[in-house]
Write a structure and sequence with these properties.
This protein has helices spanning 40-46, 112-116, 119-132, 149-161, 172-180, 192-199, 217-222, 247-250, 260-264, 270-283, 300-309; strands at residues 2-6, 15-19, 29-38, 63-70, 82-86, 95-98, 103-105, 140-143, 164-169, 185-188, 205-210, 224-232, 254-257, 293-296, 316-319. By secondary structure, it is α/β, with parallel strands linked by helices. The protein has 2 domains: 2-118 and 289-319, Medium-chain alcohol dehydrogenases, catalytic domain (Quinone Oxidoreductase, Chain A, domain 1), CATH 3.90.180; 121-261, Rossmann fold, CATH 3.40.50.720. The strands form 3 sheets. Strands 3, 4, 5, 6, 7, 14 and 15 form a 7-stranded mixed sheet that branches. A 6-stranded parallel sheet has the order 10-9-8-11-12-13, with helices on both faces. Helix 3 packs across helix 4 (149-161). The radius of gyration is 19 Å and the shape is globular. It starts with a strand and ends with a strand.
Length: 321
């Protein structure tokens, strides 16, 4: 089969398209991959900048979707069934073999291409909103980086969960994407704090979902309503901010981390419980998954470069067929 391997920790230029042996089942579910997701952690890993380091060469990617080729008895999965998968051993290849607990049956409402790019983002956002921030229907959520993969997933999920959302974007094209993803209000990066205060009547927001970090972090704290929660998801802005903890006392606000990968190390069954909540929302149309930007597997370096330049709207996936 074909696979993308990272041969050097130098970013997109370190990728090589190679031919390798297909994985053996060994009690796992074998899936013929239709597409694999590309996410910001993939870029950080490719540069050797992620908190968890990889030894080269390795196959990047952590999520994919396709059809079951074979499954162990008792797994509840059948050959030909469309599924999404978490593939911690690498997803940018034509076939994966994963533990049954990392396989998620898809409803008819979600294509395998869309599903290939949904798990990492939607599970992360669901974890951030429901478990970490303990969001309740009717609360207001501010979403930074709202036109990116995490941001658009957050806007879709907010709408499905009955949360009001305010999207922060940098230009008109991204504003249109945020509106399409279900944002109740959209504000531009320049002057966003004052705009948010106007939209909330000066009260502020209940939750900030921040995958960006960088220099807007302090104003994110200022945007919170009393007892508001800022949830740190990532640092696509590059810089890792710090906080003076006395600020947390001013309005009894909180800063929370949402590191799903770290949680899975000691609770590997958690994504299955998340899927039990997400599946009905997907099935009846309350939650929709947008179709992604698609590149061929051979063009993985281009996909990573587009992610690095922030020129892409929504999610990127690699087609493997």
């Amino acid at each position: 089969m074909l696979a993308q391997q990272l041969a050097e920790l130098v970013g997109p230029d370190g990728l090589r398209l190679v031919e390798v042996e297909e994985p053996e089942a060994n009690g796992r579910v074998v899936v013929d991959v239709d597409a694999a997701g590309v996410s910001h952690p993939d870029l950080l890993r490719a540069k050797g900048l992620y908190q968890m380091k990889n030894s080269v060469p390795y196959v990047p990617g952590a999520e994919a979707a396709g059809h079951v080729r074979s499954a162990p008895e008792g797994s509840g999965l059948t050959p030909g069934q469309p599924v999404a998968v978490l593939a911690p051993g690498g997803a940018w290849q034509q076939v994966v073999a994963v533990h049954p607990g990392q396989v998620f049956p898809l409803p008819a409402t979600v294509s395998t291409r869309a599903a290939a790019g949904m798990l990492t983002n939607f599970l992360t956002v669901q974890f951030a909103l429901r478990r970490r921030a303990k969001a309740e229907p009717g609360e207001t959520v501010l979403v930074h980086g709202a036109a990116g993969g995490v941001g658009t997933a957050a806007l879709h999920l907010c709408r499905a969960l009955g949360l009001r959302s305010i999207a922060v974007v940098s230009d008109r094209r991204k504003a249109d994407a945020a509106h399409a993803a279900g944002a109740d209000a959209v504000v531009k990066v320049d002057g966003w704090l004052e705009a948010v205060r106007e939209h909330t009547g000066g009260r502020g927001v209940d939750i900030v979902l921040d995958p960006v970090g960088g220099d807007r972090f302090a104003d994110s704290l200022r945007s919170l309503a009393p007892e508001g929660r800022l949830v740190v998801v990532g640092f696509t802005g590059g810089d890792i901010p710090t906080v003076k903890v006395n600020r947390l006392l001013l309005r009894n606000i909180a800063v929370l981390g949402a590191g799903l990968a770290e949680l899975l190390a000691h609770d590997p069954g958690y994504p299955r419980r998340q899927w039990d909540e997400l599946y009905p929302l997907l099935s009846d149309g309350r939650l929709t998954v947008p179709e992604p930007v698609v590149h061929d597997l051979a063009d993985a370096a281009k996909a990573l470069s587009e992610l690095e330049s922030r020129s892409v709207i929504g999610k990127i996936v690699l087609s493997t067929r």
